[in-house]
Amino acid sequence: MPTQVKESKTAQFLTQNYPKNFDSLPSPCYVLEEEKFEKNLQLLQKVQQDSGAKILLALKGYALWKSFSLAKQYLSGITASGIYEARLGYEEFGKEITTFSPSYKQEEMQELVQISNHIIFNSFAQWQTFKGIIESQNQLRERKGQPKIEVGLRVNPKYSEVSPEIYNPCVEGSRLGIPPKEFKKGAKKIGLDGISGLHFHTHCEQNSDALQRTLKYFIKHFKEYIPQMRWINFGGGHHITRKDYDINLLIQLIKDFKSKFKTEVYLEPGEAIGWQCGFLIGSVVDIVQNGIKIAILDVSAAAHMPDCLEMPYRPMVRNSFEAKANKKHHKLKLKGKMPYAYRLGGPTCLAGDVIGDYSFKEPLKVGDRLIFEDMVHYTIVKNNTFNGIPLPCIGMLHKNGEFELFKEFSYQDYKQRNS
Ligand SMILES: *Cc1c(COP(=O)(O)O)cnc(C)c1O
Q1: 100 Cβ inside 6 Å of ligand 1
Q2: pLDDT digits (tens, 9 = 90+) for 337-351
Q3: Per-residue pLDDT reduced to its tens digit, 212-239
Q4: How far apart are CA 16 and CA 372, in angstroms?
């Protein structure tokens, strides 16, 4: 969920070149850039080494599993939101599998206990429901000499700086995490026997100062329980690989926490792993006029970059410049920083399938290719075939500049999702 990035901050993109053989790459296509991806992983590995925390990849934001052979060399495992992600992590990543879901169903738990290391519940009731299955699985594991499933509870520390509200798990009436009062009740009535971890997830694209403030609330509300735990999971939303992220503060916070409470610490970022290490190629299919010039592309905000509409934000387009729409004498005008200004829109029938307004040094023509920056997280995991629009291919640009096509989608993918 990239936030609105200020034009000046992304000036680095303006001088960027296009990849080798750019015109021969498929369009549309999500392209992972191996070199940048590995740099993210190396930085995260350094945070693990210097802080002693374990970092898990949240598959919710990034599940490009053909890249897991690389990711698993650096990270400690994955975090799953439910059975499918847990299974993908188990099959393609290995290492530690943590699962948190707001609610589990019986048949899901039967499968999850086979493959999870940590299972985190959102309520005492769910923990009670599945205690039996977990205990019998653990007896089996003990006989086989395998590590046991460890159980955690997600709590609500009643503090989050995330906006908009749709991404804030601490809004009034939130269903995510056990609030302090309910936790106290549960701990009294049911006890914490069998619970070895606490989990909170209250960040989104935040720096470590937000974690510092959050920890105060987490500690304030749960301090009597924390020392009984083997691990505390600080959730995701730590924007560790962003340029201005204060890594030293993060490391210090983790070290202080670990030494004060004698627990392990986990982080489970998704976005920080796929941050700014890939793009989406799209092509101009038509250019129409309606007071302003509108380029219709083969990529869609609604189908391929849904966060552009959800957040909402305007993604960066490589070698493009700003353009602003305004009304002059009741007429819509596009004023660009560069002479040729366009509104970029998708091929769906949704009127609001608009990516944004941009200007260019040269006029756009049908067949031109555009690069939408930072498009490998929260895109492929969320895209859809609305309007029957074809899904973009997925590939990787290797360190040596060679492109590898991982996946092409066809009509069958569209047809098989329906019946
Ligand atoms: C979404 C989510 C994450 C990952 O968040 P990012 O913002 O991608 O870092 C981690 N843990 C939980 C429980 C989540 O819901």
Answers
A1: yes
A2: 999 999 999 999 999
A3: 999 999 999 999 999 999 999 999 999 9
A4: 12
Contacts of 302 (CB under 8 A, 6+ apart): 309, 346, 348, 350, 352, 353, 386, 387
* DSSP 8-state symbol, 1: -
> CB neighbours (10 Å) of residue 271?
25
What's the 385 CA to ligand 1 centre distance in angstroms? 24
For residue 89, report the distance from its CA to the centre of ligand 1, in Å.
15
Ordered by where they begin, the domains of the chain are 9-33+277-418 (2.40.37.10), 52-274 (3.20.20.10)
Q: Is 199 helix (H, G, I), strand (E, B) or coil?
A: strand
Q: Is the CB of 60 under 6 A from ligand 1?
A: yes
pLDDT at 15: 52
Spatial CB neighbours of 270, under 8 Å, sequence gap ≥ 6: 57, 58, 59, 60, 61, 62, 236, 377, 378
CA of 58 to the centre of ligand 1 (A): 6
For residue 199 and ligand 1, the question of a CB distance below 6 A is answered with no
pTM tops 0.85, yes or no: yes
Q: Does the annotation flag 271 for ligand binding?
A: yes
Q: What is the pLDDT of residues 390-407, one digit of tens each?
A: 999 999 999 999 999 999
Burial code (b: 16+ CB inside 10 Å, e: under 16) for 247-256 equals: beebbebbee
Query: How far is Cα 369 from Cα 365, in angstroms, rounded to an integer?
Result: 9
Instruction: Give the pair of three-digit tokens for residue 378.
Output: 């929260």
Q: If you measure from the C-alpha of residue 248 to the centroid of ligand 1, how many angstroms do you get, rounded to a whole number?
A: 21
Q: Is 307 annotated as a binding residue?
A: yes
